[in-house]
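Lecture 7 notes: from sequence to structure.

We start with a single chain of 254 residues. Read the sequence below before looking at the structure.
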Amino acid sequence: MERVVMCMKWGTLYGPDYVNVLYRAAKANITGPFRFVCLTDDTDGFLPEIEAFPIPDLGLTDFDWKKGGWPKISVFQRDLYGLTGRCLFVDLDTVICGSLDEMFDYPADFVGIDTGPTWGKPTSDGKPLLGTGIFVFNLGQYPEIVDEFVADPQAVVTKYRIEQIYVQDRIEGIEYWPADWVRSFKYHQRQPALVGLVVPPKAPTAKNKIIAFHGDPRPIELVNGGLWGIAPHLGYGRVKWAYDYWTGNGGKPQ
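Now the structure, written as tokens:
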């Protein structure tokens, strides 16, 4: 089965460096051939190895383009630019630190992040809470997710607020990554409040495959150094493992 790593870039928050670094990091951590695809509204600055396609139109308002990650559900189209096989979707604000081979081979149709109990944020019912920062699925398997959405986008947005709640409600049999595979920078690597000003964040371990950044700080802030984060969870200075990852995969401090 063909393997596809997919990301999505729209707007100006992330420059082309994010896409290029992610591609190089994926290439360094995948055995054998794969395709790297970016759905985007701007291909300027991409490496030639990156396959770029427009983000499909789902009938979103300008506001919903920017809130809740709704453009992501376009990856579930019945026919997405003729792409086939097993697809690993990865958010741009991600650090790849281990082999991705096992993520493609994980024995379930759909696998995502449990951002609830696995990330140390217990839900009221103790059940998983899907995160779609890194997920794997079979292309073309869940077209009903898109079909239902485009039939009445505003009704879906109003009911579910963010796309990952909608996806969790619509896919049966979701499995979740082993706890060590995908770690949250905020919850697992960052130091406690105020401590981060003098102690650097924890580095990934050999058991980790991905460090997921969500919200502030962004990976580039750890690369550039200075004061980063949001009070009281502030950090200071260049973080060596983030800098080595970024520059080792062709990125430049900004």
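The mean pLDDT is 94. Keep this in mind for problem set 3.
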